[in-house]
Amino acid sequence: MARPSLREKIIESGVRTLHERGYAGAGVREITSDAGVPQGCFTNHFRSKEAFAATILDRYHERTQAIMDGTLRDKGRPPVERLRAYFDAITERLEAAGWRYGCLVGNMSLEVPEQSEVLRTHLVEVCRALTDAFAEAVRAGQDAGEIRGDLDAGDVATFLLAAWEGAMMRMKVDRSPQPIEQFKRVIFASILAPGVKAGSPQ
């Protein structure tokens, strides 16, 4: 197997470093040190820290999309089960991190919009893609009679993402899974069609 390029090592390390330390807390020195590469390698591959952060967001989003492909977009599951599978898959990752770091997209959404218009615009695009994936699952649930039909799918999707990010933010503060579990209980109790249990077709 080919050895990873220096650029790839910086990106892989950068996902972890920005996730754990935040945009402001992760300097070029920390990023390259964590990657085990000379500091000069950074400027060879990225024109700025801002451009680097955009690349990190893209890599993180690719990983999230891969999880969505196996959950939200899995047509072999009932739609509500797709939603639950997605939240459960992310919960496993949050638990593995000790309930400490939450979502990189949410973290950066709190930190960078006033610092960088480039990153703010990038975050808008990422959040739109996440919302679209939720909306697709919600519409499928409405078509199957699993999710309330009196709700606009786009509104539900926007609320799902906002509430999920908020739950992860509170999780980081509490260092506890309780906000995540509360989110799941309230969300599914709120959006399910009457007589439908979460994860079960009507």
From TrEMBL:
Claim: Transcription is one of the keywords in the record: yes
SUPFAM superfamilies the record matches: Homeodomain-like (SSF46689), Tetracyclin repressor-like, C-terminal domain (SSF48498)
Organism: Nitrospirillum viridazoti CBAmc
InterPro entries named in the record: Homeodomain-like_sf, HTH_TetR, Tet_transcr_reg_TetR-rel_C_sf, TetR_C
Ranges annotated as DNA-binding: 27-46
UniProt keyword list: DNA-binding, Transcription, Transcription regulation
Name used for this protein in its record: TetR family transcriptional regulator
HTH tetR-type domain segment(s): 4-64
GO molecular function, one term: DNA binding
